Amino acid sequence: MIAALLLAAAAPSAVDAELAFARDAQRLGQWTAFRKWAGQDAVVFTPQAAWAREVLPKKDPPKAISWRPAHSFVSCDGRTAVNTGPWFGLNGKMGGYFTTVWQRTRAGWRWAYDGGGPLAKGAPVPAAKAQVHRASCRAKAPGAPVIPPPALTPRQAMMTPDDNGRGESADKTLGWDWKVEKGGARHLRVFQWNGTRYEQVLYNDVPAPPPPPEKQ
């Protein structure tokens, strides 16, 4: 276990991946970067859940938004993380916050969930350096509440009344679940093992998008 943790510490972190992702958005194009860093089963919201590989735009905007992580919640083994922080519009002003679930694969870090919301009380604020919060590596108690999630099927990802999903790190020290209501409001919870119990360390409460304007 100690050797594995030392190797994990030497590898690029999820914060490094997030910063590289943001740089690629400026260098390669916004949606090109999203596709480059997305995992095979990455989920985005439109506002209902959808597979990123099916709905990400093919054409990049003339200029990309920018973002940077303020907090990174990491599993004990360092192979799964949830990053959150502000994103900035083309005018350089904060436009809202993002939350990204990252998993380290054989191909490197890939994001599995990308969401976020508008500016609101409790949203992450800009920081010169992301704060990294690592889960405890102490043995878990029997009957721990985070359990392996079932695979997300295309039907589950695209269903419109009530979308929901969940995931966890391989070592079960970091878990998350999300739900999209029928109107498009979305909720994300992130739990981290602190050595004795699972503690909720992040909650995103994203309001439903405004309805489209009525045609005259």
Summarize the structure.
This protein is 19% helix and 38% strand. The protein is α+β, with helices and mostly antiparallel strands.
What this model shows, in words?
α2 (14-27) runs antiparallel to α3. The model is unreliable at 147-152 and 156-161 (pLDDT under 50). The protein has one domain: Nuclear Transport Factor 2, Chain: A (Roll). With 216 residues, it is an alpha+beta fold. Strands 1, 2, 3, 4, 5, 6, 7 and 8 form an eight-stranded mixed β-sheet that branches. Strands 9-10-11-12 form a four-stranded antiparallel β-sheet. Helix content is 19%, strand content 38%. It has five helices and twelve strands.
Q: Work out the number of β strands.
A: 12
Q: What's the alpha carbon Rg, rounded to whole Å?
A: 17 Å
Span of the ends, CA to CA: 65 Å
Second CATH tier, the architecture: Roll
Proportion of residues in β-strands = 35-45%
Structural class: alpha+beta
- Low confidence ranges: 147-152, 156-161
CATH class: Alpha Beta
Query: What does the average pLDDT come to?
Result: 85
The number of domains: 1
How would you sum up the major sheet?
Answer: 8 strands, mixed
Question: CATH topology, what is it called?
Answer: Nuclear Transport Factor 2, Chain: A
Share of residues in helices: 10-25%
Shape verdict: globular
Question: DSSP helix count?
Answer: 5
What series of H and E elements makes up the topology?
HHHEEHEEEEEEHEEEE
Task: Spell out the key features of this protein.
216 residues, 19% helix, 4-stranded antiparallel β-sheet, single chain
